[in-house]
Amino acid sequence: MHQGDGRMKYIGVLGLQGGVEEHHHLLAQLPEVKSIDVKYISQLEEIDGLIIPGGESTTLGRLLRVFNMLEPLKQKVLAGLPVWGTCAGMILLAKEIEEETTKHLEVMDITVRRNAYGRQLGSFETMQQVNAVEKAIPLVFIRAPLVSKIGEQVGILAEVRGEIVACKEKNMLATSFHPELTTDTSFHHYFVKDLC
């Protein structure tokens, strides 16, 4: 690991499915950051933090199981590996998913509602103040989930229309929106600087 020593930070992007390249593109713009496609258990030892991208949460969960990565990844996160889930990644991190019996990593003390914005509002963009980056940034939502309930240790980083769309607990970060679909690197910088 390379935490806190001023050297290069190695940030993994779970490369099984979803918006992987978009995260790599923004990470490439940050100084002293090298991004790595993570597809194997052994790679979890090579990174300072992991991004779980947007995609299809059921498919991502199934692929984690197929590649026997679910339990090792869960243990790494519980042991302190910084992790950030965007959209589907948020669903994978959640301890509870409304109206779902199948859960995935179950590491973050949040309850998530899938496709919370429905088909008619399936995709939208807004400029919104986000506490973590201390400025308004573009937030892109694509059939996004939202956080309907949080545990005592979870801090709220952003709300849209009165709903929680970004939160943090210890080494875990979750966003309903997709910073990787914008040109703004603020949230990636926050993850690398403050969590990794």
TrEMBL record:
Subunit field text: In the presence of PdxS, forms a dodecamer of heterodimers. Only shows activity in the heterodimer.
Organism: Cellulosilyticum lentocellum (strain ATCC 49066 / DSM 5427 / NCIMB 11756 / RHM5)
Family the UniProt entry places it in: Belongs to the glutaminase PdxT/SNO family.
Catalytic residues in the record: 87 (nucleophile), 178 (charge relay system), 180 (charge relay system)
NCBIfam families linked: PLP_synth_Pdx2 (TIGR03800)
GN (gene name): pdxT
Reaction equations catalysed: L-glutamine + H2O = L-glutamate + NH4(+); aldehydo-D-ribose 5-phosphate + D-glyceraldehyde 3-phosphate + L-glutamine = pyridoxal 5'-phosphate + L-glutamate + phosphate + 3 H2O + H(+)
GO terms assigned for molecular function: glutaminase activity; pyridoxal 5'-phosphate synthase (glutamine hydrolysing) activity
Listed InterPro entries: Class_I_gatase-like, PdxT/SNO, PdxT/SNO_CS
Pathway membership, UniProt: Cofactor biosynthesis; pyridoxal 5'-phosphate biosynthesis
One GO location term (cellular component): glutaminase complex
PROSITE patterns documented for this protein: GATASE_TYPE_1 (PS51273), PDXT_SNO_1 (PS01236), PDXT_SNO_2 (PS51130)
Protein name: Pyridoxal 5'-phosphate synthase subunit PdxT
Gene3D superfamilies per record: 3.40.50.880
Enzyme Commission number: 4.3.3.6, 3.5.1.2
Binding site for L-glutamine: 55-57, 114, 142-143
Keywords assigned: Glutamine amidotransferase, Hydrolase, Lyase, Pyridoxal phosphate
Gene Ontology biological process: L-glutamine catabolic process; pyridoxal phosphate biosynthetic process; pyridoxine metabolic process
Function per UniProt: Catalyzes the hydrolysis of glutamine to glutamate and ammonia as part of the biosynthesis of pyridoxal 5'-phosphate. The resulting ammonia molecule is channeled to the active site of PdxS.
